[in-house]
Amino acid sequence: MRKFLSLAFVCALVVSASLAHAQQLDLGAGGSTLWSFKNTTASVGYLPPPEKGGTYPSVFAQYTNKKHFGFSAEGSFRYHRGLYNGIQPYRPILYDVNAVYVAPHLAKKTTGDFMAGIGAQTLLFYNNYGACNIPTGGCRTYVNSTHFLFHAGAGIRYYFWREFFIRPEVHWYIIPNNFEFHSDHVFRVGASIGHTWR
Fold this sequence. Notes:
Blueprint: H1 2-18, E1 24-36, E2 53-64, E3 69-77, E4 82-84, E5 88-107, E6 110-132, E7 139-161, E8 164-174, E9 185-197
Antiparallel strand pairs: 1-2, 1-9, 2-3, 3-5, 4-5, 5-6, 6-7, 7-8, 8-9
């Protein structure tokens, strides 16, 4: 996870340096949690669990032009490992790229961010014993599963001091073939804090 955050930070710095002449560039970080539906009617013995709970740190970079359209990239991951059906340690990682529309001046110091795009979810399932392959150099202590996703999100941005803002937000992920969990629909709810360069 440290490598992921370091890479995201370096990418954000490179983007900010290359787009210094741009209309608007936003960088931010936040925290959120996941929520999804739980199956309450099935009668089988083994049910896939709902994908919910946990603390999800996130980072994002967003560029917007003079006409209030732009693009963004965002990533989040579960901070502490969860327990899949109370047995298997796991960690989801969500990342996406989006087209963005920024609604100017909903109220004083307030704007709206609306986004839609594509991305992926990677699930890391951990075990206590590595799958060792000594000639190729090491033991792997996890198995991963990656699924394509569609993303839609909205946030209300409030500038509390100069160019610094806080953004309560909700994200909706549609993850086709998300067979490890009960539902293909996952919601991430939280807030971000960030800075705007104009």
